[in-house]
Specification:
This protein is an alpha+beta fold. It contains 14 helices and eleven strands. The strands form three sheets. It has a six-stranded antiparallel beta sheet with strand order 1-7-4-9-3-2. Helix 10 crosses helix 12 and helix 10 crosses helix 13. The termini are far apart.
Length: 396
């Protein structure tokens, strides 16, 4: 969906100036930290600025904009609840050297390693509404993004797969270019098949946002918050209150996730069903929620490996399939359980994990970077929530 004047016209110049200050500040940090003229700011195909990390009082308007009625307010309407949190805020920039087209992809974080199969996520969304929305809001006219309309509702077609296998960086026969005027925005479900068509040196400044639901009918996929709260002190009183509310919503969800896991540990079907209903109120698609939490439990268990203890946060995140700014969320949840409990959770989830694997490795264009045995598209057709509960007695 394209929306006009997401950035109010009388604020466009102000935001351009503030974001350019942050770009210059971040480039200086990159150069200083890397001691290398070929640092990320110059060689990345699409430099991404997590701009909340470099704001101050004079540039806090860049974050406050994410709380505007045109962004957070519209996202609440799309997600059907006021209990919405700001998951991600970054600025997408042009590279210093042209890189050309990127790969067609769907934003399903780490593919089947961390997520439920795509058809399960899509069916859950169609039955219960979206759990998150993503935005691109350009500060200058932009036409880099192409999408396949409606593909967030379905798997790749055979024709799309043939074209993607032939050349994953070329225009598909059924795609549409997203042409945005400065200040306009496109809001979309990020499982849509999309293509960054040209990472050229033309000036590009895209406010890229993602909002996630804490009050909808389904459990959201993906990492929770891709920010840490140190920047909040620079915001207005109202802005600070918004982010404190986001954190409260996340802590409430962690309490529910803990209750869900403890019901599994205690082999208590009634408590399990109650916890599952709180996490996924919609009665259709609850096995997708169980799968997502099985993947989360595996990442929690992986954090217990002794060799990770002294690694920097970025390396710990990479080792367990998290993003750097979300590793703190995972670690906070993991601290609620002992190493023995996370190991036992892995054993209880093992029968489900086996159902999510195929006999041999396979590859689906746009979903994973390499072949995997995990099912990328389809949920198991012979396993449901009742089967998962019944499997506890044989799993451990």
């Amino acid at each position: 969906m394209i929306l006009k004047n997401v950035v109010p016209p009388d604020r466009l110049d102000e935001l351009r100036a503030s974001f350019e200050t942050l770009v210059d500040r971040q480039k200086a940090h990159w150069a200083r930290d890397r001691h290398d003229p070929n640092c990320f700011a110059y060689v990345a195909k699409q430099p991404r600025l997590a701009y909340q990390t470099v704001i101050d009082d004079t540039t806090a308007n860049t974050v406050e904009f994410c709380l505007h009625e045109n962004t957070l307010g519209v996202s609440r309407q799309a997600l059907g609840t006021r209990d919405v949190g700001l998951k991600q805020m970054i600025l997408l920039c042009n590279p210093e050297v042209a890189h050309g087209p990127d790969l067609w992809h769907r934003d399903v974080s780490h593919g089947p390693t961390n997520n439920a199969p795509l058809a399960g996520l899509q069916a859950d969304m169609l039955a219960n509404g979206p759990s998150s929305v993503q935005w691109n809001i350009p500060l200058y006219d932009d036409d880099v993004l192409w999408v396949v309309p409606g593909s967030h509702r379905r798997l790749n077609t055979a024709r799309e797969n043939r074209e993607l296998l032939n050349d994953p960086r070329a225009k598909l026969s059924n795609c549409t270019q997203v042409r945005l005027t400065a200040g306009d925005g496109v809001m979309y479900i990020n499982t849509i098949l999309h293509w960054p068509s040209n990472y050229s040196t033309r000036l590009r400044r895209i406010i890229h946002l993602r909002y996630t639901s804490f009050g909808g009918r389904l459990f959201p996929y993906g990492s929770r918050f891709l920010w840490e709260p140190g920047f909040v002190k620079y915001l207005s009183t109202e802005g600070q209150a918004s982010f404190h509310r986001f954190i409260e919503l996340a802590e409430r969800e962690d309490d529910r996730i803990e209750a869900f896991y403890r019901a599994i540990l205690d082999q208590d079907p009634e408590a399990f069903r109650q916890a599952l209903t709180l996490l996924h109120p919609g009665d259709t698609g609850r096995l997708v929620c169980v799968v997502l939490l099985a993947k989360l439990a595996r990442r929690m268990s992986a954090l217990r490996r002794p060799e990770l203890d002294n690694l920097p946060a970025r390396e710990r995140a990479s080792a367990v399939g998290e993003q750097p700014f979300s590793i703190g969320n995972l670690e906070a949840l993991a601290r609620r359980f002992t190493a023995a409990e996370t190991k036992l959770l892995g054993q209880r989830f093992a029968p489900l994990d086996a159902k999510l694997q195929m006999e041999s490795e396979h590859f689906v264009p746009s979903l994973a970077s390499k072949p995997t045995r995990y099912a990328q598209e389809h949920m198991p057709d012979d396993f449901d929530v009742d089967d998962f509960i019944a499997s506890w007695s044989t799993a451990a």
